Structure formats: C-alpha cells, structure tokens
Amino acid sequence: MSKKRLVIALGGNALGKTPEEQLELVRKTAESIVDLSEEYDLAIGHGNGPQVGMINNAFEYAALNGAGTPAMPFPECGAMSQGYIGYHLQQSVRNELKKRSIDKNVATVLTQVLVDENDEAFKNPTKPIGSFMSKEEADEISKEKGYTFVEDAGRGYRRVVASPIPKEIVELDVVNSLIENDNIVITVGGGGIPVIDKEDKLEGIPAVIDKDRSSALLAEKLDADMLVILTAVDQVMINFGKENEEAIDEMTIEEANKYIGEEQFAKGSMLPKVEACMEFVKNSKNGIALITSLEKAAEALKGQTGTIIKK
After folding, report:
1. DSSP string covering 72-117
2. What residues act catalytically?
C-alpha cells in the first residue's frame, strides 16, 4: 500500500543564524524528518530570511570595501541560500538514514517559483531579511542603497523586500518524480527562487516568497494528503498571551476566517501560516493542514497535539 504524502514547511527555529549553529540544529531536525519518512512520503520546504540576508550583506560589504568581489543580484543570493541550507539538511538526513540502516535517498532540488511581476507586493515590500541593526545604521544604508527598512518586533530594524504570491513551481515534475521513486525531497527552499516570465524566458527578480505559501502550493500540486507547517509552538492559540488564552485543536476555514477577522493571529508570525493552510485546504481535493512544533510533529500526526485546519 502506498504511503500518504506530506509536505512539511520548516520554520526558522529549525535553522540557525550561523553555519555552525545551523548544522547543529538541523541534526535534530533530521531525526524528526527520518522518523516521519518511515510512515510518509516527504517533500520538505524551509525558510531563508536570515541566510539570504547574510549572503546579500556579505557580498555587498565586500564589493563596497574594494575586495574585488562583485555585488551579487538578490535572486542569486536566494539560490545560494537554497544550496547552503539544502546541503546541511540533505547531509544530516542522509547521516540519520544511514545510522538507522534505512535504504532511502535524499535530494535537494534547486527550485524556481514563478511570480507575477505586477504583483502588488513589489509596491509594498514587507518581508524582513538579514540581521537586525540600529535606526542610524538602517538610515545610512537606506540613503546609500535605496533599501526599505522597518522596525521589527522591538528588536531593531531590518531590510524588507517584496513577498509576492507564488503562482507556479517550475521544477514540480522533477520533485514529483523523485517522491514517486521513494526519495525524500528538499525543495522550494526559502519559498523558491522568485522568477518572472519574460516572453517565455524565465528571469530572476529581487524578492523573497513566503515559504509557507510556496509549501501550500507545492502540497496542492503534488496532491498531498497533508500540509504540515512546523513552527515554534505546539498549537495555534487565540487570545495569545492573555489570561483567557486558549489552544485550538481543530478549526474549519470558516472558523479560521472568523478568528482572522478578530485579529487573533499576529501578522508577522501566525497569520501567514494559517492563511497558507487555508489556501491548501481550499484548493486540494481532500487535504487537511496541521500547524505544530518540530518537536511534537510525530505526536501531532497521531492527533495528540497540534492544530488541524480542514474544510
């Protein structure tokens, strides 16, 4: 009997801020992924906000300081972050498979995702990338480079770029073929490398696509049984941080819309995750979505924790 198919979107808590920290964290992540791979066919997406910002900043710093290094276009920085994160995940998952004597392969697919160049997001950049800095530092770079910076959750200022809606996953057939042949696939890294269609030719464009939205689109197109968004909390909450805080075990699209109307979900964190889940559930035949933590993923898939979103 064929296994159920899962698309997993890894949250930022599964990755680190430096190569050393990331490699240490993904070793734990790999254990959870391999646990799930014994019962499910898996495609894994992940974020790249800190990593793509770090790569972009490094190239710009080197170019500005006469190191003979060219400034790197932003789509290429996204591609580098996909490869760097994918390498760590792929290596760690492979090591864990070998450790358990599981005869299975894991592959990272450098993935392009088509967006609309007329997407309203390009007029209003909102996706934070890179490291936190002071207002003075942000103002100086903004004046020099024309970048947009915003204050982020009281922790300092971060550059923001456009976050357009994903329309099509270019390498979808490759991903599907790998899964059908019993491989674990790491794909739509950082939401995918954003590309636009220029007279039937693909062209990179500076942006970061939300990894939950790309993972939802991937889950829909792969006809997955479930989209699983892994984040820092075990369950979605309403009245978060208040005395009447309440964990949600299950909600319909209608109930989720009601909570969104009440502004129950924070715009920069839980809201896009809930919206991505709703998108997948609406557009899939029989799919359901799950939001939970990496640590509790196996328990959540058995119905012991997590928040289920269904039609």
Report:
1. PPHHHHHHHHHHHHHHHHHHHHHHHHHHTT----EEE---EEE--T
2. 12-13, 127, 211, 273
Q: Where are the alpha helices (DSSP H) in the chain?
A: 19-37, 49-64, 74-99, 135-145, 172-180, 211-221, 253-261, 270-283, 297-301
Can you read off the two tokens belonging to residue 271? 């809201």
Tell me the Ramachandran region of residue 101: left when phi exceeds 0, alpha when psi lies from -120 to 50, beta otherwise.
Answer: left
Tokens read off for 158: 């971060």
Residues 50 and 81: their CA atoms lie apart, in Å, by: 9
Asked if residues 247 and 88 have their Cβ atoms less than 8 Å apart, the reply is no
Q: What does the CA dihedral 138, 144, 147, 149 come to, rounded to 10 degrees? A: 10
Query: Which pTM does this prediction carry?
Result: 0.91
Question: With contact defined as beta carbons under 8 Å apart, do 109 and 185 qualify?
Answer: yes
Would you report the helix, strand and coil content of the chain in percent, each value rounded to 5? 40, 25, 35
Give the tens place of pLDDT for each residue, 228-269.
Answer: 999 989 999 999 889 999 999 999 999 999 999 999 998 878
Question: Residue 194 pairs with which residues in a beta bridge?
Answer: 113
